[in-house]
Amino acid sequence: MADMDPFEAIRAAHPPTDLIENRTTFGGPDAELSIYDTYNEATHVRLQRSHPLICGMIRGKKVMHVESNETALPHEEADDAPTMIADAPFDFMPHETLIVPSGQPVYIDFPEAAPDAPTTCLTVEIDRDRIQQVVDRMNEHMPRTPESGAWTYDDLRPQHYRHLPDVDETARRLVRVFTEDRPYKDTLIDLGITELVVRLLRTEARTLLLVHSEEAADANGLAAAIEYIKQHLHRRITIDEVANAACMSTSSLYRYFRNEMGCTPLQFITTCRIRHAKTLLRAPEQSVTSVAYELGFSDVSHFIHTFRDAEGCTPGTYQQRHAPDA
């Protein structure tokens, strides 16, 4: 028999006592995981916690009202860049992530909640001191470039991410860890929380580098490397020339890419090419062959294989799905 969906299992084990934001909570070392289910439409429901809150939508739709002290940086090129948070409400949908600073109130509307289709969200509240411990370990074991400065956590600015599959997967995996009864449960929770914080901090650092690579290229070696890659996607790029653009050795280039971007330079080049390929393929006049050569692939079959590995479909299939009349 297939395993029951963990959220269905939680509802079965903990029948709801409230129809609006029914909360089921599981504690762990320096963190608390909560599952919220709402069974009726509602508006302006308040959510506020004492420590940073990582929210992930599971099912349904929420409309969030979040007051922002500082607008998050938008960036069209990066799938994992934060969308802008202003005073205007925004939709919060499944697989999206919202980070709420300590003590900041959030007001929520539930336009689609129903008894047979509850709106479900998970939150992970992490003690600020625990986050700082992770930050200190990152600075010790995976330092950023001197120009980028030390790792820090911004507990003042809310951020909304539409596409963070690694963070979403980590948060969902924590649901099973928090709810299972194992002798080493606390250790697994601690590891999961560490992974979640590291992934979020890397995402923010990567976004800032991508957004500011052009203006920061003269002062930041990693930004210079990123800008060089972005400007030369049309041809073969070697690691030596990227290292030269960054004014660092190839070993330093690999180390700082791993630490700050969470990938190797070659993986980043491939990611940039696939991202740009998706943009080009949305134009019906572009062929798969022309896109392959425009992005520096010397062999069309290699482009098709690389694209399929990244996107789960061939470039031709992607183009058909995103045709104007599709």
TrEMBL record:
Domain HTH araC/xylS-type: from-to ranges: 223-321
Cross-referenced SMART domains: HTH_ARAC (SM00342)
GO molecular function annotation: DNA-binding transcription factor activity; sequence-specific DNA binding
Alphabetized PROSITE patterns for the sequence: HTH_ARAC_FAMILY_1, HTH_ARAC_FAMILY_2
Keywords: DNA-binding, Transcription, Transcription regulation
InterPro entries: AraC_XylS_family_regulators, Homeodomain-like_sf, HTH_AraC, HTH_AraC-typ_CS, Tscrpt_reg_AraC-type_HTH, Tscrpt_reg_HTH_AraC_N
Name listed for the protein in its UniProt record: AraC family transcriptional regulator
Organism: Longimonas halophila
